[in-house]
Each structure stands twice: as structure tokens, then as C-alpha cells.
Amino acid sequence: MKQIIDKWGKSMGIYLFLMILFPFVMPDEYYRSVGIIIGLQAIVTIGLCLVMGLAGQISLGQAAFWGIGAYTSAVLTTKYGLPPFIGLIAAAIVPGLFAFILGRAIAGLQGYYLAMATLAFGYIVQIGITEWEPVTGGANGMISIPQMTFFGDSELSMYFLIWGVVTCVLLFSLNLLNSRVGRAFRAIHKSEIAATSMGIDVRKFKLNAFVVSGMFAGISGGLYAHYMGILDPQPFGLHESIKFLTMVVIGGMTSIWGALIGTILIGFISEGLILLSEVVPGLQGDVDTIVFGAILVLIIMFMPEGLVPRIRAAIEKGQAKKAKAMADEAQRKQQVERKAAT
Amino acid sequence: MKKRTFKKWLFPAAVASLVFLSACGGGATPAAESGTGGASKEPIKVGAIFSLTGPNSPLGVPEKQAVELLVKEINGAGGVDGRPVEVIFEDDKSDNTEAVKAIKKLASKEKVVAVLGSSGSGPSLGMAEYAAAEKLPLISMAAADQITNPVRAGIYKTPHTDVHGTKRIFKYLKEKGITKIATLNDSNPYGSGWTTQLQKYAPEYGITIVAEEKYGTKDPSMSSQLTKVKGTDAQALIVAGTNPGPATIVKEAKQLNLTIPIISSHGSANSKFLELIGNSGEGVLMVAGKLLIPEQVAADDPQSAIIKKFVEGYQAAYNTQPDGFAGYGYDGLNLLVEGLKQAGSDASKLGEVLEKVKYVGVTGEFKFTTDDHNGLTEDSMIMVEVKDGKFQLVQ
């Protein structure tokens, strides 16, 4: 724990400060609901970041785990009357099981093949939800899913519940990153062969990352179901999976903070575009998809490592420059003094 | 070297443009369609969330146009109780989450007294969940029966449901002495809603469903299902889906020489359907609202006056014939205005007052009651036949 505070203290402090401040700076329900949705997405993208950045896998099926989580909690609470809290635990376990089975099945795949397999999985889940009518309500979906009560059921308390979960997920992931497991992941990301030769069980680590990411997505899905109050299969498709992927890539795959910042950035850009479209009527509608696509292309072309690692590198470089300048200065002074002495 | 400088400047430039974007946005005033007449008093704010983009946009755009037209007319005539009506539009992008965000925005930022929309069933159900909890009156333009069944305080809807369509078709079949039917429905929410209702009401009309087939919304061909239907002793085929599916079915049925009558639902009842079926659709039957053939509505029909007025106004404004969706939007705002008039200055009563509203609209004659928040009956629907590439009323 101390390690985290030492290493992440500053970033964590800023994060907590901004997170707690946000709903009071924007004291209206709408921006709080925007904050909630960004939080829900952040839980998924942090998980995805573990899979992509650390284990070096591509998952195009993250929205499917999200959907499984959402439906698990919704069905248990709505049809069987269980409290949402239990539903939420199941919403973490069931997608985790799915991820485990899928992960075992496709553990040997890499790169594009893995992407294709997860893509297919995403489709299967969405079609499965649509066709399993007696349980999921089919294409018509489910209504009247109970709300989550967390110190009241206002938008504000929901905001803190969700960002509380985001904080837990964030701490868990940062901690993981700095442990032996995290170092193993980074080794796998750089070179699987090298990692294997160092005695790392690549398959096991990849599977673990996959399961954890599935569980995170499931928790987020469960929260989403209780927040929305209704579900239908539409949000759990490829479009959403790609959106998650975009957020992670923009923020920076190799950094947990990157996933978080990428998610927030995308959320802010879409809000900005909505506001902008009120001034410029031509900007209505699917403009955000175009903008996100363009940003993705630019990021991959000019900073493939993503925003956060790039900024961090720039800051470090700046600090190094400053240190060097100071050293130079000191050396010059010394020289001048020496000259004066002689 | 050149590349390096470009790289160096890219990030600050990107940040600067983002800041510019958000700064632009922040200073913007909300887009509002305020009226011109009677502007001295404070306007009554009404929210309208339609699917202006995404897959539901063919529904949402005419709905918005009809509402815009009506707002101008209402405010031109002095508004409601001397106060102009201001409608604030939002686009839900045919997405559930966006719809819920939009209704929260309208409720908390704009403090609207009621909300119209949305176009699709999923977004509408999401909005209804919030509106019911917040006691904000909502009038939806979406098809799903679940929106108003079970009845929730303050939640209403204007379109004909699959229940009305089913009953109207069965009534027609009974007149013709047809007892065995096959169904071929889209697997989307619209089509599966129909499947449920067709099953539910068939025994009541002495009808047996001998084949029950489904197709996917994006399927390019339904010939295998049609071949199956051909092998049964069905006397008629009922098709429920939105274009282009039903049109494809009509064309392929002709190629397969399927001679039994095809009856399509109101989901595909528009001019696009006629375009798609070309000359292979002679004799195809459809169940639809009267707005599909405004010129054939009888003069003594209670709806004839308002249909005529709406069609003329819409055509003058947009140079095109209004479809059923435009009608749903038009009726929605009219019902709301009727409720506002009755509630007087007290907008908080609006949800209850609407429960007693009776109004003749372009979709049908609405009679809201405490246990019917749709207020329509199957008698407001008509059967039409495609003749010489046009819709003809079946008497």
C-alpha cells in the first residue's frame, strides 16, 4: 500500500480531488448523469487496459461481458426478487466464468485471430440475449429493474457509488501493476517468448487478465442495469466494444491512468459536440463517431503509445532537461570560480 | 527535422482546438424553437426527444417536423392561456442511454413541464422509467405495448399498437371467412411484439396459426421461410416488420408463386414500401392508420377535418406527404396542449388531467382513461390494398 502512495500519491490525490469536486462544480442532474456514465465506462476500460496493455491481447467482445453482467443482475433482481447487492456480486462472477471458459478456449490465439474470436463471441452473446426470450425478454428487453439504493437514490449518491467502484478498480489495477504479477504482464506484453524463457506461465497470466477484465465489465454492467432501470440487447454490440477500445487506445494502452483519462476525454468530447451542435446545426447526430475515428487515426499515427505515456514522457524529458541545465549551470559557475581563484 | 516539429506542435494544437471546442460550447444558449406570437408572457417549456439520427431517424425526423409545424401554429394563435409554447428538442441517436441522459437534461436543466418522445421503444421505455419516478408527464411515439401496459401515472403514447393491428386484421379475416394463417415476422422488437399478439388473439377470432416463421432484420432473402409457408394449408400470410423486409417478402412470394393473400403490418405502410415492391405487389393488403390515404377518408369521418388540415399544412411546409410517424408527433403535442389547457396554470396536475382527455387526432380518436393510456381502438385503423401502384381503401 505504501508503495502505491509513494508512487501514485500525486496522481491519486489529483484524481480524488477532481472526482469528489466534479458533482459540486456541476450541480445539476444532467452533468451528474454524464459523470455516472463515464464512470461506468471507466470500469470497463480499466479492465480492458489490463488485457490490452499488460497482457497484450485485443478484445473486441468487452461489451458482451458488460451485457452478461447487466442481464445477470437484472434477471436475478427483477425476476427472483434478490437485492441488487447480491445481483451485483453475481454480475461479477457470471461474466468472469464466461471469460474463463472463453479464455481457455482461445488461449492459444494471438493478434488478429484473438480479435476475431472475441468479435464472434460479442455477436453470439448479443444474439443469445435477443433469442433467449423467456429469461431476457428478447428484443423487447426488461423493464422495472429495481434501483440501487446507496445512501438514498439521488443522482449524487449514485455518482459516488459508481466512482467509489471506479476508485476500487483503479487501486486494484495499480497495485497489480506494481506487483510481481504486473511485471510478468509487462514482460509478456514486450515478448511472450522472452517471458516464457524467464519462467512466466504466459497462458495462465493471459487467462487471469482476461477473467479480471470480464469481471470488471460485468460489475459495470450490473450497475448500468440498476441505474437505467431498463435493458434491451441493443447497447451490448460491436459498436460499444469498439468505443471501449478507442478509449483505451487514446489514453494509452500501457497505462491504467491512460484508460481512465481516455474514457473521460471521450466523454467530454461527446458532451462538447452536443453543446456545439446547438450552435452549429450541421454538427448534429453521428458526428461524434467521425470525430472519434479521426482522433483514433491521429493517435495511432502520431503517438501510438497513447496520450498519457506521451505526456508522462514529455514531463520526464522536461525534468531531465531542467536537471541537465542546472547541472550545466553549476559546472559553469564552478569553472568561473576556479578561473577567478587562479 | 520537419516531421519532428510537426509532431511537437500536434499535441498543443489538439489541446487548443479541444479547449476552443468546449469554450464555444459553454457559451452557447440552448437551441429552442420559441414561437413568435404572444411572447410577452413566460413560455411553457416542453421537451421533445426524438431519434433524429441512427436507425430510428426515418421515424424521428418527421415527428420533429410535425411538432415544429404545430408549435408555430399554436403560438401564432396566441399560445396556451396566452403563454407561448417553447419546445426544446433533443436527439437520442436511437440509443437508450442517450435518451435517458436527454430526459434528465430536460428535467433538471430546462425544467420542462412534460416530455414528448421518443421514436423507438427501447429509448421510450428507459425514459418512461425515469419520468414515472420523477412524476414528469411523458407522451411516447413508440410502438411497444409495454410503455402503457401496465399503466403508469403520467405515461402515455400515441401510436397504434400491435394489439390494434392484430385485432383489425383478424376482424377482416373473419369477414372473409379465413381461419388458417401463417405468420412471418421480423425478429426485432416490433416484429416479436406482433408475434406475441397474433398468438394471443387468434383463438378469440377462431383463427389457427399453422406456420410461425421469423426473419432477421438484415436478411437479404426470406425464400426458405416462404417455401415452408407454401407447404402448409395457410389461407393468408401475415407479415410484420419495418422496411425493407416486408417488401422483400412480397417480391419473393411472387417469384415463388405463393398465391395466398399477404397482409402486411402498419410498420411498413408508407410510400417507401410501394417503391420497393415495384409492380410485384398488386393485391397486397395492409393494415394502417387513415393518414396513409388522406384523400380517401370519408367526409363524414370525425377525423376527416383534422387530417385534411394536417396534411395541407405539412405539405405546404415541407413539400411532402406526412406519414404515420409525423402524425404520432402531431397528436402527441396536441394531446399535451389539450391537457395544459385543462390543467390551467398548474402544470403539476398535467399527469392526472391527461387521464381524462378526449381528442380527435390524425392517428385516431384518443380517449384516455385511468386504465388506458393509449386511448385508441382497432376501429381507427383501416385495411388498404395495393392497386395500380397505389394504396386503395378496402371497404
TrEMBL record, chain A:
InterPro entries: ABC_transp_permease (IPR001851), LivM-like (IPR043428)
PANTHER family: BRANCHED AMINO ACID TRANSPORT SYSTEM PERMEASE, HIGH-AFFINITY BRANCHED-CHAIN AMINO ACID TRANSPORT SYSTEM PERMEASE
Transmembrane segment boundaries: 12-27, 33-56, 86-105, 112-129, 156-177, 244-269, 289-308
Keyword line: Cell membrane, Membrane, Transmembrane, Transmembrane helix
Chief place of localization: membrane
The organism's place on the tree of life at top rank: Bacteria
Subcellular location per the Swiss-Prot or TrEMBL entry: Cell membrane
Source species: Brevibacillus fortis
Pfam families: BPD_transp_2
Protein name stated in the entry: Branched-chain amino acid ABC transporter permease
Its membrane topology: Multi-pass membrane protein
GO CC annotations on file: plasma membrane
GO molecular function: branched-chain amino acid transmembrane transporter activity
UniProtKB/TrEMBL annotation, chain B:
Keyword Transcription: no
Leader sequence residues: 1-31
InterPro entries: BCAA_transport, Leu-bd, Leu_Ile_Val-bd, Peripla_BP_I
UniProt keyword list: Amino-acid transport, Signal, Transport
Limits of the Leucine-binding protein domain: 43-389
GO biological process, one term: amino acid transport
One Pfam family cited in the UniProt record for this chain: Peripla_BP_6
Family from the record: Belongs to the leucine-binding protein family.
Family matches, as PANTHER family: BLR7848 PROTEIN, LEUCINE-SPECIFIC-BINDING PROTEIN
Protein name (Swiss-Prot/TrEMBL): ABC transporter substrate-binding protein
Source taxonomy: Bacteria, Bacillati, Bacillota, Bacilli, Bacillales
